[in-house]
Each structure stands twice: as structure tokens, then as C-alpha cells.
TrEMBL record:
Keyword Transmembrane helix carried by entry: no
One Pfam family here: BD-FAE
InterPro entries (alphabetical): AB_hydrolase_fold, BD-FAE-like_dom, GDXG_lipolytic_enzyme
Parts of the chain that traverse the membrane: none
Full protein name: Alpha/beta hydrolase
Boundaries of every BD-FAE-like domain copy: 52-251
Keywords, comma-separated and alphabetical: Hydrolase
Domain of life: Bacteria
Record lineage: Bacteria, Bacillati, Actinomycetota, Actinomycetes, Kitasatosporales
MF annotations from Gene Ontology: hydrolase activity
Length: 302
């Protein structure tokens, strides 16, 4: 190809996510506004990454914000999916959060078939930066943001909270997320190059111990971490509950607040738990988000 004319190059490129106009919002029940497929970041050589925005009713300003990260073993998954037990909810879980006055940004990130760690963490950090930049248009307060993720997304939410992002997070909600990619537990073998953890890192964790440690929230726990709510099925056969138990203990030992909620009879994704138990853990997670956002405002971080 010959070099393009500078004006052609400028015009042919899609608008940058930092300045592109926001799409029109769909109107849902309770005044909730939904903006789907909003680009927030374009990694070098990669596809544009998008988020869906669930915003409270018109007129809301300085709303607290949830940055949601989906599960899928870092290899699959959809940004609009909070897990199998919430897929049939009406209203949908994100709409319920927005109806409670808290905005939600459910974000894409690069999967392990596209890029290795730390790419998905960098994408979460980029989403947080974009949400801060566009907060005036969205009517949100970026200083009252809570990261919330399930399974692999819970792992990323925990790492995001522990990497001292700017603006700092007000809290983190982690549903059945892996916290340790380096230690054998359950049926996990860190020497196996075919596990989801190995695909995330680009090699078996035992072969890249420093990378595995950097990708393990358990190894990153520190006293300046924001408050955590860790929710895990007591019978989880895919990600043993010891992941959340040990992360909660490490955070508390370092001096950071951490609440652990084990759900009886629940396997991964709340499989096997009564519907009432799933509703209760969702309600507890939303209560945590709202209480942490109030505390962040009261502490003058707004």
C-alpha cells in the first residue's frame, strides 16, 4: 500500500473512544437508560473493546458506579452475562442495580485466545480510565466506583482493586473468583500447560512462577486495599472456596477489610443453590456497593 494522504487518514479512522459521541439510550423500566456497545479502548493491533452502560433515570448526577467483569475462564464469556443463575431475571440484574441508583458499565476485555496476561487487567484499567474521563456525560462519580466480577471476572476485579488504580476503587465484589494461580488445589495442577490458567499466562504457571504470582490476587493483598466482599459456593468444584477463604484471610492479616460469604449447597456459578439464596447474595452484593459508595462520599473522596 502507498502512504495515504494525511487528510484521508484522519477522516477514515473511527472516532477515538475518548471523544466519540455516546450512542442514544434505550429506555427501560424504572427510567433506566441502556447504551449498548460503547467503545472504551482500542488496544494496539486489536479489536475495539466495548462496554454496555446501564444508567439511572434522567437527571441523576454523581451516581455511584459498578464496573462489571464477566466470567468464562478468561477464554470466553459475554459482557452482558452475570452468570447462569441470573440470565432469566426480569428485570435483568444490571437493570436492577441501575434502578437502585447505581450506574453499571459491563466491559469487554481481551480473552486468552487474543492476548496473554496482563492484557485483560490492562483492559480493566483502561475501562476505569475511560469511565473517569467520560463521567460528566454519564452522570457518574468515578471516585465511588466498585469493581464487581464473577469467576474469571472476579479474579480480574480483585486484581484491579489491588493494583492501586487511579481513581481508587471504593470496593470490590468477587463472586467465586480464583485468587491463586500458582498452588495445587482441588484438581488444579500448576504444571499442566492446558489449563485455563496456563492459557491466560501463555505457559503452565509452574513454568512462569513470577508471572503466576503477578496474576494471583492472593499474592498481591495489601493493607491499603479497598474493602472486599468475597462470595463463594461452599461446594464449588471448579474454583474451590479456599480461594476466597485465603484471600479474605490475607487481606485481613494485612489490615484491609474483607467480608467472606459462603453459600451453602452452591457449586460454581451458584449451581444447586436455592433461588432464594442466589437472590440473597445478589442483594448483599448490591447493599455492599451502595454502602461503599456512601462511605467513599462521606470520606471526601468525591
Amino acid at each position: 500500500m502507498t502512504p495515504p494522504h494525511p487528510d484521508l487518514l484522519r477522516r477514515i479512522q473511527a472516532p477515538h473512544p475518548d471523544t466519540a459521541p455516546l450512542p442514544p439510550a434505550a429506555r427501560l423500566a424504572d427510567g433506566v437508560r441502556l447504551l449498548r456497545g460503547v467503545p472504551y479502548h482500542v488496544p494496539e493491533g486489536g479489536r475495539p473493546l466495548e462496554c454496555d452502560l446501564w444508567l439511572p433515570a434522567d437527571g441523576t448526577t454523581d451516581a455511584p458506579l459498578v464496573l462489571f467483569l464477566h466470567g468464562g475462564a478468561w477464554r470466553r464469556g459475554r459482557r452482558d452475562d452475570m452468570g447462569m443463575r441470573t440470565r432469566d431475571w426480569d428485570p435483568a440484574p444490571f437493570a436492577r442495580i441501575a434502578a437502585a441508583g447505581c450506574a453499571v458499565a459491563s466491559a469487554d476485555y481481551r480473552l486468552s485466545g487474543e492476548a496473554r496476561f496482563p492484557a485483560p487487567l490492562q483492559d480493566a484499567q483502561a475501562a476505569l480510565r475511560w469511565l473517569h474521563l467520560r463521567s460528566g456525560e454519564l452522570g457518574t462519580d468515578p471516585h465511588r466506583t466498585v469493581a464487581w466480577g464473577e469467576s474469571a471476572g472476579g479474579h480480574l476485579a480483585a486484581l484491579l482493586a489491588l493494583t492501586r488504580p487511579r481513581p481508587a476503587l471504593a470496593g470490590a465484589v468477587v463472586w467465586y473468583g480464583p485468587s491463586d494461580l500458582a498452588t495445587p488445589r482441588g484438581g488444579f495442577d500448576p504444571g499442566n500447560p492446558d489449563t485455563p490458567e496456563a492459557l491466560l499466562l501463555g505457559a503452565a504457571p509452574a513454568a512462569v512462577p513470577e508471572q503466576a504470582r503477578a496474576a494471583s490476587p492472593l499474592a498481591q493483598a495489601h493493607g491499603a486495599a479497598p474493602p472486599f466482599l468475597l462470595c463463594h459456593g461452599a461446594e464449588d468444584t471448579m474454583v474451590p472456596p479456599s480461594h476466597s477463604e485465603e484471600l479474605a484471610a490475607a487481606l485481613r492479616a494485612a489490615g484491609a477489610p474483607a467480608e467472606l460469604r459462603l453459600v451453602p449447597d452452591a457449586d460454581h456459578g451458584w449451581y444447586g443453590a436455592p433461588e432464594a439464596a442466589v437472590a440473597a447474595v445478589f442483594a448483599a452484593s448490591l447493599d455492599f456497593v451502595l454502602s461503599r459508595s456512601r462511605a467513599a462520599g462521606d470520606n471526601g473522596t468525591r
